[in-house]
């Protein structure tokens, strides 16, 4: 009985493995290879599997998408045509990056603009800091340390910390 | 019973943290030290209380109390005990308690220091840390209760609640759903605690910074007190990121270690701010500059720690609508906003007090180069932050979801990373206040000349990719400059003290562990850079469906598919395990066993690659699937990952460097033994 249960468990497991795991479409002789499919698949994302490229996503839904890519390749579609097909069907989120148009163009515009503003601020800060000559003794004392005794104490404590 | 005790202990801890914050602040404002002390005792009470609550959760997890909603969601009968225990941080509720427990431990440890002349900081330190702790505890007490029970309501719905809803009957399932199989991996057991330790440790320097601002301390005392805490936070966060990468490489089955996933970036953001902080505090310590900036950086790091937790806990990443429905998402959002605004307001209020004590003497000085380093770190942070939040903004504005994937981040962050590498080569050769392009040029030309041999050798060795050549040249320059710095230091000690090489090296590092620990970290980064360039530029892959005995070729490797077995295991898995032989240049070099594990309890599958690892490369095989008709033909995806192991080795070197940098006490002891050694190195 136990053995029967084990066999049944293994059979069930194998069925589940077959159904739940990706079942790759097998390349036809002369047709597109898995690698041809993956070249396109790696630039696409299915709407269900967050942030997993299609070429490595193990779900059945993604396997069906890869099968669709294969079918389109057999029909002679170009890479761009296939990607456009998925965008038409599921929206721009299937692409690894949004098209640089409309509101989504902001994703590309803002970083260089911020970088330029940051560089300008950095330049201004550096220039402002160079206005006065350096203090002769390197690091100065703190605001609270204007009292010579306190300054001496602070310095000794700082040395102790180092 | 245990669940009730656990929950009421959580409530008590929440009240204790609120009392601690209030009493400490009241004591400071009214100059009543007994209230501050009372607040401190309340703070010290939080850790033992949270230990009891955590122990209660662990006991419920380990003993299979599936009537508790959290237990049923993350454990099952088939899971081994160690996984049931570590399931504490495998789900939302438990991980929030774990976060709070670590934080209570860190804040208690920090409060046990000798406060002496910093006593005025204590009440505000207690207030800031206890408010943060109270916030996290409020999440578990009111929204994500790990002790809530399962009930079957009158209308047949399964509900989770602490107290029995009207008309509901208790539900006690015989088994749980089990931990997500992807989390049943040694890397994932260590990775979250490491990240959390990094996260919570950053609360300490933030709390001291706020305390310094509140008490109008303009000196760098808060930085000196928290120097080691900052390094501890940084090493754990770094370790968490590296371990996360290793876990992804071992379990996710896509042949890589970093996918620019928002959850990965959530952990990277505070690391970037923290790394910038780690460099810029040195400028304040040495030159009394960048005081405003350091406070900004620690506020930013703290906010990003909260933001990272928020991103991974609120459901916001799957959709802004999921966020709106999430119980804790809006709470997080408000808390981050309030703490950020209050902290910045405090900084603005104290702006005049924090004026720098020195001026910039040269754009090639150490402080100027560190500022540039900070600029580049902030650039990477801004790009990564923007890439994470833009899909959410886009969904809000246009109603359409979009993906911002790896190409965006790699294109923007690649050049910034290269800039950081170049700075890593130049900055160690600069001195505070006095360097010019001439002094740097004089120190740089020898290592620069040697490092030029690397791209030349690589070019004639067949590597012509400009990105790779540029990256390897920059990384080599960092390596040679760093080694040159060690060499100069050791030689100086040998001349002055007649020490042999190992002793001179030991004492050189021991005398200034922070500096030389930093250099070791740089060497770790160099190794990682070599590995990253290797796999990013030269990774190759192929996929093929094979019958037994057939083979697939990838570069110099040939893989033959020998056999496959499908079987059940005692821990509730159904395993499909292939056997493949790997040949390199026609010679059998290894036998690998890529497999797929299907977990019955959670009904999820995990891909475990078969990997042949050498220092030069990894041959990485994934079992993609089985042909249901033949029941033996199998599809394999095969990757060739050059130099990938340098990433992990670099991670180890990196960690060693950080440990050396924390090694202040030992270093001081050695310095006392050899006081005259101070002449041999630059400060």
CATH topology type of the largest domain in chain A: Helicase, Ruva Protein, domain 3
Fraction in helix of chain A: 55-70%
**Largest interface, by Cβ-Cβ below 8 angstroms: which chains and how many residues each?**
A-B, 70 and 79 residues
In one word, what is the shape of chain A?
elongated
Mean pLDDT of chain B: 89
Counting H and I runs of at least 4 residues, what is the number of helices of chain A?
Answer: 6
| Oligomeric form | heterodimer
Task: Give the SSE map.
The complex is a heterodimer of chains A (162) and B (683).
Chain A: H1 2-20, H2 34-41, H3 60-74, H4 79-90, H5 106-129, H6 148-161
Helix pairs in contact in A: 2-3
Chain B: H1 2-29, H2 33-62, H3 69-74, H4 81-86, H5 92-111, H6 122-143, E1 149-152, E2 158-161, E3 169-170, H7 186-201, H8 203-214, H9 221-225, H10 227-252, H11 262-287, H12 291-313, H13 320-325, H14 329-349, H15 366-398, H16 406-426, H17 437-460, H18 466-497, H19 501-511, H20 513-538, E4 540-546, E5 551-554, E6 557-568, E7 573-584, E8 587-592, E9 595-599, E10 604-608, E11 610-613, E12 617-626, E13 634-642, H21 645-662, H22 664-673
Helix pairs in contact in B: 1-2, 1-6, 2-5, 2-6, 5-6, 5-7, 6-8, 7-10, 8-12, 10-11, 10-21, 11-12, 11-15, 12-14, 15-16, 16-18, 17-18, 18-19, 18-20, 19-20, 19-22, 20-21
């Amino acid at each position: 009985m136990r053995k029967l249960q084990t066999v049944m468990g293994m059979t069930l497991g194998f069925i589940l493995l077959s159904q739940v795991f990706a079942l790759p479409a097998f390349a036809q002789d002369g047709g597109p290879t898995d690698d041809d499919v993956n070249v396109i698949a790696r630039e696409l994302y299915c709407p269900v599997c967050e942030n997993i490229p299609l070429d490595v996503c193990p779900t059945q839904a993604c396997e069906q998408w890869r099968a669709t890519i294969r079918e389109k390749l057999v029909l002679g579609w170009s890479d761009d045509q296939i990607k456009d097909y998925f965008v038409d069907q599921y929206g721009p989120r299937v692409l690894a990056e949004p098209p640089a148009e409309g509101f989504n163009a902001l994703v590309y515009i803002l970083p260089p603009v911020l970088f330029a503003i940051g560089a300008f601020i950095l330049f201004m800060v550096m220039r402002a800091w160079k206005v006065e000559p350096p203090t002769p003794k390197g690091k100065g004392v703190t605001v609270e340390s204007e009292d010579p005794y306190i300054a001496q104490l602070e310095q000794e404590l700082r040395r102790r910390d180092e | 019973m245990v669940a009730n005790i656990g929950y009421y202990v959580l409530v008590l801890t929440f009240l204790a943290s609120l009392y601690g914050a209030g009493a400490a602040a009241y004591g400071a404002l009214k100059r009543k030290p007994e209230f501050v002390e009372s607040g401190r005792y309340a703070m010290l009470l939080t850790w033992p209380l949270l230990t009891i609550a955590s122990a209660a959760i662990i006991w419920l997890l380990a003993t299979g109390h599936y009537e508790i909603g959290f237990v049923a969601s993350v454990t099952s009968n088939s899971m081994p005990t160690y996984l049931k225990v570590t399931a504490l941080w495998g789900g939302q509720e438990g991980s929030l308690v774990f976060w709070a427990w670590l934080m209570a431990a860190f804040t208690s440890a920090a409060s046990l220091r000798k406060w002496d002349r910093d006593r005025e900081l204590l009440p505000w330190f207690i207030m800031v840390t206890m408010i943060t702790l109270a916030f996290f505890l409020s999440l578990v007490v009111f929204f994500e209760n790990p002790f809530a029970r399962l009930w079957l309501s009158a209308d047949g719905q399964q509900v989770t609640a602490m107290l029995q809803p009207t008309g509901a009957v208790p539900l006690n399932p015989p088994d749980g759903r089990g931990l997500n199989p992807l989390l049943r991996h040694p890397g994932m057991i260590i990775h979250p605690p490491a990240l959390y330790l990094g996260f919570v440790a950053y609360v300490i320097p933030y709390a001291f910074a706020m305390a310094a601002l509140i008490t109008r301390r303009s000196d760098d005392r808060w930085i000196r007190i928290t120097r080691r805490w900052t390094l501890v936070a940084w090493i754990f966060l770094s370790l968490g990121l590296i371990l996360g990468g290793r876990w992804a490489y071992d379990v996710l089955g896509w042949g890589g270690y970093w996918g620019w996933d928002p959850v990965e970036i959530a952990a990277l953001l505070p690391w970037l701010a923290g790394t910038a902080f780690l460099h810029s505090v040195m400028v304040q310590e040495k030159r009394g500059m960048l005081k405003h900036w350091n406070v900004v950086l620690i506020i930013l790091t703290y906010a990003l720690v909260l933001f990272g937790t928020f991103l991974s806990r609120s459901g916001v990443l799957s959709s802004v609508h999921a966020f709106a429905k999430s119980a804790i998402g809006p709470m997080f959002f408000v808390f981050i906003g309030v703490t950020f605004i209050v902290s910045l307001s405090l900084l603005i209020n104290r702006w005049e007090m924090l004026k720098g004590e020195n001026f910039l003497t040269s754009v090639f000085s150490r402080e100027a180069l560190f500022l540039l380093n900070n600029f580049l770190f902030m650039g990477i942070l801004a790009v990564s932050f923007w890439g994470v939040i833009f899909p959410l903004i886009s969904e809000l504005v246009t109603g359409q979801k979009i993906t911002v994937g790896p190409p965006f981040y790699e294109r923007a962050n690649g050049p910034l990373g290269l800039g950081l590498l170049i700075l890593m080569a130049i900055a160690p050769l600069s001195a505070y206040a006095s360097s010019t392009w001439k002094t740097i040029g004089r120190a740089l030309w020898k290592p620069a000349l040697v490092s030029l041999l690397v791209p030349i050798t690589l070019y004639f060795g067949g590597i012509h990719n400009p990105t790779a050549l540029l990256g390897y040249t920059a990384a080599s320059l960092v390596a040679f400059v760093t080694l040159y710095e060690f060499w100069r230091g050791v030689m100086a000690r040998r001349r002055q003290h007649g020490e042999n090489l190992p002793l001179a090296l030991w004492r050189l590092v021991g005398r200034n562990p922070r500096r030389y620990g930093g250099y070791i970290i740089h060497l770790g980064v160099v190794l990682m850079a070599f590995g990253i360039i290797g796999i990013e530029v030269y990774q190759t892959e192929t996929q093929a469906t094979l019958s037994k005995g057939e083979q697939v070729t990838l570069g110099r490797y040939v893989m033959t598919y020998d056999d496959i077995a499908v079987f059940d295991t005692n821990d509730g898995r159904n395993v499909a395990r292939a056997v493949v032989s790997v040949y390199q240049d026609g010679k059998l070099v290894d036998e690998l066993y890529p497999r797929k594990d299907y977990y019955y309890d959670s009904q999820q599958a995990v891909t475990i690659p078969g990997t042949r690892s050498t220092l030069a490369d990894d041959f990485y095989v994934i079992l993609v699937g089985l042909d249901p008709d033949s029941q033996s033909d199998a599809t394999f995806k095969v990757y060739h990952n050059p130099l990938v192991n340098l990433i992990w080795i670099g991670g180890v070197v990196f960690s060693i460097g950080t440990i050396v940098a924390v090694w202040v006490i030992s270093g001081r002891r050695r310095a006392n033994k050899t006081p005259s050694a101070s002449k041999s190195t630059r400060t």
